[in-house]
Design a protein that fits this description.
Length: 564
């Protein structure tokens, strides 16, 4: 399972493993192909060589008139080849159709047994429904000489040189090598070879060649004609690995490897083309482009990152547009009030009025500073992955601090600590987590009637903080909208209650970078709104980048809220 998981997640590991598998399969295929081809070649070689010898035996047998002469002839041939030749009925061997066709063409049938290394050879007797049969376990020099003796015996029935040459032309089609009549003086022979020919001995010459040509043997059989011999050959020895076969197998193997490599690379190329196409579309301004790459490997992760990036860019642009429109709208009121106060300062000489207008201007400037601070904080969280200083935060201590700070504002609302778990620690950036609780508590004080409860703790592998109030609550259909920048709901949540509509948006972005989530529902205790933030108790890394699933979830909520 770990190996399969690694192969699924690494396209390069799949390519390396695929190449190794392809090379192994091609090597096995090449071995099987060579074995099959050589088996066919050696079978053809055996049958061709046997056909030549058996044709001469059959020709000699057909010249024997009586049964006794036939028996004597077969006995002599058996002695000559050092193996026993027999005549059997055709039906005894149970020949296949292809073998019967060979027998009818006066060709030998060879049945080779690899276990015993023995060849059973059959040849049809001319004019009869019988076959010549012999069992051979090896090819030796005596058998090669036997072919020469049989050929000389066949040619002895033809007296003149012209008749002998004509006879050789007639039987050439049954021999896989050349048959010619040569003058001894024209052959490049040493003294010993010439002497043996003059003594009417058959001479066998072996040629070992390391070049393209195969090694071969040559048989010289002296005829009754003066200085004339029958030249058999060259007779090629069987070569298991001829150069043309090796070249052919190599080319086929290279072709198969090329196909296999193309099959491995094509999906990668296709995926990269999809990503390139997506990049081109994004460059043209189509930020809603999605690259659909199936899998779990590096390219699929790259495509997922690309999709997340384009979504993030699109959302940033949309957020920037919304922020620009909202900021321009939010700035008009304090700027208008400042302008009005300045005009009042110019029109009055009363000291108290001038001080009053100055105080109004200070309040509006402070309001502008607060708005700018909120905008900068939101922009920082929105533009990219902020640096998080992860540490183990004591949730109980942090909640107590927020309760103390909120009560210190002197508002007529009671802020209490809810159910807390002692020793509840969770990894978080304390500064940002403090900002979350501060914003939630500040939001609750604007809408609560008398009581706010702040809680925190651990549930399984998640940490949570909760702020609930006894205000009018938030309708279910509007709960997603509260996290949109500068969002306003009904009259119960107007500007008269304070705030700029960015506090909850900042909370939502901090939750996102905590790899967590924000939710709002109805408080089961106080009946008002309850805001809950949950995030992993232990972060996976010191710096967490945008998680694709969280990103999509956030985008979906943002889109739905905008549509509403």
């Amino acid at each position: 399972m770990p190996l399969l998981s690694s192969l699924n997640q690494s396209i390069f590991l799949r390519i390396y493993a695929g190449l190794l598998l392809i090379c192994l399969l091609v090597a096995l295929f090449a071995q099987l192909l060579i074995t099959t081809i050589n088996a066919e070649r050696v079978q053809t070689y055996r049958e061709d060589m046997a056909s030549a010898a058996f044709y001469l035996i059959d020709s000699g047998l057909s010249r024997q008139v009586t049964a006794q002469e036939r028996n004597f002839w077969l006995s002599d041939v058996s002695t000559l080849f050092d193996t026993k030749f027999e005549i059997e009925p055709t039906s005894k061997a149970d020949f296949k159709t292809s073998e019967i066709n060979r027998l009818n063409k006066q060709q030998a049938v060879v049945r080779f047994n690899g276990d015993t290394n023995t060849a059973e050879i059959y040849h049809k007797v001319s004019g009869e429904n019988n076959v010549l049969h012999v069992s051979v376990n090896k090819l030796n020099e005596q058998q090669i000489k036997g072919i020469g003796v049989l050929l000389l015996d066949d040619l002895s029935y033809y007296r003149t040189l012209a008749e002998k040459q004509q006879r050789l032309q007639q039987i050439q089609k049954f021999f896989p090598f050349k048959l010619t009549l040569q003058s001894v003086n024209k052959l490049q022979l040493d003294t010993d070879q010439k002497a043996r020919l003059y003594r009417k001995d058959i001479v066998i010459m072996f040629r070992d060649n390391t070049s393209v040509e195969n090694s071969s043997i040559r048989v010289l059989a002296p005829t009754e004609l003066q200085d004339t011999v029958v030249d058999l050959g060259p007779i090629p020895l069987f070569n298991w690995f001829p150069l043309n076969l090796i070249i052919s197998i190599t080319l086929i193997s290279m072709f198969l490897i090329s196909l296999g490599v193309y099959a491995l690379i094509f999906p990668l190329e296709r995926k990269l083309q999809l990503i390139q196409s997506g990049i081109t579309k994004v460059r043209e301004g189509k930020l809603n482009t999605k690259v659909k790459v199936v899998g779990e490997d590096e390219i699929a992760h790259l495509a997922a990152t690309f999709n997340s990036m384009t979504e993030h860019i699109r959302r940033l642009i949309e957020s920037q547009r919304e922020l620009t429109r909202a900021v321009s709208h939010e700035l008009r009121t304090p700027v208008a009030r400042i302008r009005f106060a300045v005009d009042m300062l110019a029109d009055t000489d009363d000291y108290e009025d001038r001080m009053s207008q100055r105080d109004y201007i200070d309040q509006d400037i402070e309001s502008l500073n607060g708005l700018i601070d909120e905008i900068l904080t939101y922009a920082k969280l929105e533009e990219g992955s902020p640096k998080m200083d992860w540490e183990d935060v004591d949730l109980q201590e942090l909640v107590s601090q927020i309760v103390r700070e909120t009560n210190a504002l002197g508002k007529s609302i009671t802020v209490k600590v809810g159910n807390m778990q002692k020793g509840a620690f969770a990894q978080a950036d304390r500064r940002y987590l403090h900002r979350v609780l501060q914003n939630l508590a500040g939001n609750a004080t604007r809408y609560a009637e008398s009581t706010i409860i702040i809680s925190a703790g651990l549930e399984k592998n998640e940490a949570f903080i909760s702020v609930e109030d006894d205000g009018q609550g938030i309708p279910e259909k509007d709960r997603e909208k509260v996290f949109i920048p500068f969002a306003r709901l009904d009259d119960s949540r107007t500007r008269a209650s304070g705030g700029y509509g960015l506090g909850l948006s900042i909370v939502s972005r901090i939750a996102f970078w905590f790899n967590g989530r924000m939710s709002v529902d109805e408080s089961p205790t106080l009946g008002g709104a309850r805001f809950i933030m949950k995030w992993p108790k232990s972060q996976l890394a010191s710096s967490i980048e945008a998680d694709e699933i969280t990103q999509k979830s956030s985008e979906k909520k943002y889109t739905q809220a905008q549509g509403s």
